[in-house]
Every structure is written in C-alpha cells, then in structure tokens.
Amino acid sequence: MNRILVQPQRRKRVRGPLALALSALLITAGLGGATASAAEDYSQSAASVNATQAQISFTPATPARYVDIHYTGVPGVGQQNVRMTDNGGTWRHIVGSLSAGTVLDYWFTYEKNGPQYDTPHFGYTHGGSGTTVAAPTFDPPGGSYPSARTVTLSTATAGATIRYTVDGSTPTASSTVYSGPITVSASSTVSAIALKSGSANSPVSSASYNIGSTQATCPVQSEVPDFGPNVRIFDPGMSAQSIQTRLDADFNAQKDTLTAQFTERRYAHLFKPGVYSGIHDDVGYYTSVAGLGQNPGDVVINGDVTVDAFNESDKGVALQNFWRSAENLAVVPSSGATRWAVAQAAPFRRMDIRGGLNLFPASYGFASGGYTADTKVSGKTASISQQQWYTRDSSYGSWEGGVWNMVFSGTNGAPANTFPNPPETTLGTTPVSRDVPYLYLDGSGKYRVFLPSLRTNASGPSWANGGTPGSSLPMSRFYVVKAGDTASSINNALSQGCNLFFTPGVYHLNQTLNVSKAGTVVLGIGYPTLVPDNGVEAMRVADVDGVRLKGLLFDAGTTNSQSLLTVGPAGSTANHSADPTTLQDVFFRIGGQIAGKATNSLIVNSRDTIIDHIWAWRADHGNAGTYGWRVNTGDTGLVVNGDNVLATGLFVEHYQKYQVIWNGQNGRTVFFQNEIPYDVPDQAGWKSPNGLNGYAAYKVGDNVTTHEAWGLGSYCFFNDNPSVNLYHAFEVPNRSGVRFHNMVTVSLNYKGTITHVINDAGAVTPPGTTPSNLVGYP
C-alpha cells in the first residue's frame, strides 16, 4: 500500500464577527421528525414590556409538561435556550437588554402527549412592527387530481387572517378572506397571504391544482428540443480543433477557484455517439460532461476528461473542486491514466476508462472526494492522497491508496475489507441500487431519456453484459426548462403530466414545485440551481412510486425555508419497495453564493427512498457577506422519517445542529462523510438536548430499533474557537439491532477535539490530524 500523507490545507475561510452560539435544544424525542405548523396546536406572541424588555408567550392547546424558547438577536449575547415559566397554561419568558430596533429570531420546543415538537421561527422587532406572520400552507398540496379537491388553508400564527386568490394573481390585504375550506373544481393556482395587526405580513404561498383527469397527459414536446445556449452538443464530424476551442473557452470561464466557484454560469458538454480523437476536456465548476450514447462505449474519447488542482491559488490541493461531473463515456487516456481529482458533488458515473484512473492531484496534494458509480476502469485506480472515496457497482483492474475512509460496495476488483489499516471498507454487493436516468440519442437521431431498472444485491456495472436493463421515455414527454421559466410555468408542466429536463441555469422560485405524479422524472444537466424566494420550500415530492430526481442543486434563498426538498408528507406509510423514489446527484447549499437560510435541507418521509450521492453543505467560505454563524443558518442537512430508506454516498457538512437525524426504522447507510461546523463561537451555546458538548454528526432517533451503517467519517475543525469540543460524532440507541461498522473521527490540524467516536465508545481525537478509529458498535 502506497499511502502519501500530507498536512491537509483546509478550505478557504474568511472570519467575520460571530456573536451567537448554536441553539442547544432541538428535539429529544423524534429529533426533527415533528414540526408544528397548525395554529390550532398553540398560540404565541411577543410584546414590549418597556424600553429594554419584551415578553414572549406561548399557549399550547394541549397542556405541556415543558416549553423551551430559543432566541437570538440580543446584542453581545449568544443564542439563548431557556425553559419558560408556566402561568396558568401560558408559558412566558422576559427577554432583556433590548433597544429600539433590536430584532429577535425565536422559536419553541414543546411537549405534547409525550413526543416533543419544534415550531417554525418567528420574528420580533423591539419598538417596531412585531412578529412576522407564518406563511399559509395547503392541505392537500398542489398536484394532479381526478376530481375536485377541498383545500384547507392554515397558518401557524394564531389570530391571523388569510386572504387568497384562485387565478394565480398575488393576494393582497383586499383579496378574498379565507373563512373555510375552498372547493377547487377546475385547474387553478391558489395563492394566499396571512396578515395580523401589529405583525409583518407573511410571504405569499401558492399551490397549483390540475383537476379533471386520472392521468394527466403531457402536451407533446419536441423530440429534438432546443436545449438553450449553455448546452454544447458535439458531433464526431466536427474538427477536433473546433471542439477543443469550445471546450477551452468554457474551461477558462469556469476554471478559477477564486472567481468561478460561485458564478452563475453553467454549462453542459454533450458528445454524440462516435469517436473523438485528440480531445482534452478540462472540467471546471458547474460543468457536466456526458456522452449521448445508450451505453458508455457508444462515445469514445481518445484523450482525457480531467480535473486537477488547476490554479495557482489551489496550492496543489483539490479541496474545493466541487460541482462538476462526467458520465456515460469511454475514455482512452492520452498518457495511460486520466485524472479526476475532485472534492464533493463531483460524480463520476457510467464511465468506461480504458487505462488507469488517478483520483489525486498531479501535485499529490490532498483532495476531499468523492463518488464513482456504474464505472469500469481496466487499469489501476489510485486514490493516494484522497481523504475519502465511495465506489458503488463498478469494476476496477486494481486499487491503490487510502487515507481515512475508502468504501466500496458491489465493486469488482475492490481491495479487501481491512479497516482501519489500511482504511478500506468493502461490501460484496450493494443492497438496492438503480442507476441514474440519462439523456441519449436513438438510431433515428431523436433524444430519449433512459431509465435503468432497479437492482438488488448488485455487483459490477449495470452495462457490463452489453447494455443497461431498463426502459426509456421520448423527449416528447419532457418539458425542457430553460432561462425565462418560472415556478408557475414549471408547475404548469408538472400538473399537465410532463417530466422535467432542466438545462444549465439558475432558477428563482416564488412558489414550491410540486411533483405529484408517480414515475415523474426530473433530470438536470450542467448543475441547474433552484433558489427558493420568500421562504418557500423549493420542491415537494408526493408519496408516490418511482419518482427520479437527478442532477439538481438546491441553493437556499435569503429568507429562511423550513426545508429545501421534502419527499412525501409527514406520516407517509405507502410501500414503495418495488419502485422507490431515487435522489441522485442532488446537492444542497446554504450560503456561499448568497446568504441563504434553511432549517433543513432535505426531509425524507416516504418509505423505501434511495438517497444515492448527495452533498448537503452549509458554506464555510464564499462571497463576502454570505457565510457566518448568524448569516447562513441551517440546523440539519438530512432528516429521515421514512422506514427502509437507504443512503449510498452521503456527504453532509457544517450544519449547526445534528448533521443527520434518522428517525425511520430499518435505515441503512453505505459511506458517510462529514465535517462539523468550523465556526462554532463558544461551547456554552453549543450543547445538544442531552446536555453533552455539541451535536452529533449522525443521530439515530431514540425510538429506532433497527439501523445499520458502514464506512463513516466525521471530522472537526473548530477554527474560530479551538477550545470547542464535540462529545461524540455518532449518537445511537443502545440496541442490538442498531449496528455501525468502520468509523473514523479526525481533528483537522488539531483544531478542537471529538471525545468519543460513537456514544461513549472510541478514543478522543489525537493531535497531528491523526484518525481515531472504531471497527464496530456495539
């Protein structure tokens, strides 16, 4: 084993004033699985007492054993987490040290008949306009329905009045007053706003309903669509020089880590079937490279598809080589091996490498990847200085390297299971998998999207025996989303039964995208980015069979969203094991580009969902003013409430509370990579509900009886306050059915410590960026 260990240089950070600590009281039972939203469950208010004090009150409809308030905004004071005082069924707390204009952000945790619940966040301006009314919600959510629906509107703010429209127009204070359930008998968009005297109006919420057919039929779209100006389509009849000129121009625009990492430019390079010689595609930020054949060998590049530490500012490391991809190509490397030295959100899928593959920079500096699936490498795959890597359903000629956490499932030619020395975790098969949907050209020159079949206990590439099993859909059943599309036009396409094909771009959404039809495909190329505005949720998926989401980047807006993506409503129980929803190469970002805010990035309520390669990232660096403890706020990256959910390739970093909360039964994770937030300001404000230091990276709910995970790494780098400590990286119930295999914790550059690996087991992280390993628990 040739292991090269170099001192890691962490990602670029710029320190700003950090005045607040992280909230200490999330949910002790349920852990994020129950979020109160109905006004009938409680009422709350905030009112001025005098020039320096405000009283916050909370009255639950059902008597509570306790109510805790969490609030930020008091000048010079970190986040406070306080048990309120009960006064005849109304719980109260006085907040002091206020002045005119002080803005408080506050929310509650309360007990109700045993379980514990979190409320949404509320706002209060001292001496100002008071709280902001919570946005209205719709039950049932927008979608396609065979007959008229009775729609109920509600808001979490007691005493608020809801006004609404049914023609898609923006509601105002003079719109129709909501007084009871609305009957929606024809296709329409319902929009609503909530108002209350003394409070700021809520954001506008909207839901689109398509009424009148059991199965909506997508109006016929073009089978040879216009994919817009950011999709480059190459033909083998083009000269190599003309192709290279286009590739180089895109690369030069997307290359620089300092200037292109948070640009809004996005590109896709698509190669029609055939052979291309002398081509070298250096892949920069927000660039997807893909072949348009039905199988990888239909497009052959005699040359290279490369990612390296390209820039002088990178100083030889590839720790920020995010957001780029390669897919569905055969590559004959020009010098024996091609290089894919990437960090997170850079999948390498359906690739046929006829030679070697180097996953490390040419400089041998550290990289922080990575993910490979459904790929064959005839020669040696060398990770060398890669910190961690996950490979699924692939084939390697051989493997070399390993720093902390290298994981393989269903991979022929993978190394033996030798964790921790060397740190390789190998599963012979992948329990359940389904390769990504992908665009291809058929024999008549028309575009189609191929839908690979579900595999169980898979090993090796799906195309190893001549072709990937599955079916396909014509592009005539896809609405192509391009610049100029709005949430309304996209929802209209969904309500008509269309699948979605997102082209490269940034799409602002003023209403939630509702995916309600079973079997809907939402496919993106070139990192299309969905930004929710005004605190809406970017996308909701109904509790139906076979939805496939692939190739999307959810970027939180500047007004807090409760979630960026939710799969299935709370309490979903339908069995989807025969045709699960799959989330693949779906990425989440809070901050970095803009000062985004989202309480949760991804909530999965539907059973049997497959989470196959996600990166949920609360930014530790980015454009000025877009990151910081009080700036890009986010509690949790992933909340799983559904049973039988499988995660293969789970990357979650820097959230302010639990990074992952898993409440569903029979959950499984193969490979987990995590960094705890860098910017925790102080220990006193960063304690979990059980009173221990910090929030575990991966929390299995107290009521879970069966859960299993393999190959997990969690790293701390408390750069803003190295005295901060995390008690344990993994927190699980002590039950025989909850089993964890091959775990590692590391203190990067010895900035802070992690006392235990899991619960009370495992040693404290030692100095020297040295791992603390634990082979199994219990």
UniProtKB/TrEMBL annotation:
Keywords: Signal
Any Pfam family matching the protein: CBM_56
Position of the signal peptide: 1-38
Molecular function (Gene Ontology), one example: carbohydrate binding
InterPro entries (alphabetical): CBM56, GH29D-like_dom, Pectin_lyas_fold, Pectin_lyase_fold/virulence, SACTE_4363
SUPFAM superfamilies given in the database record: Pectin lyase-like
UniProt domain CBM56: residue ranges: 37-126
CDD domains (UniProt xref): GH55_SacteLam55A-like
Record-given protein name: CBM56 domain-containing protein
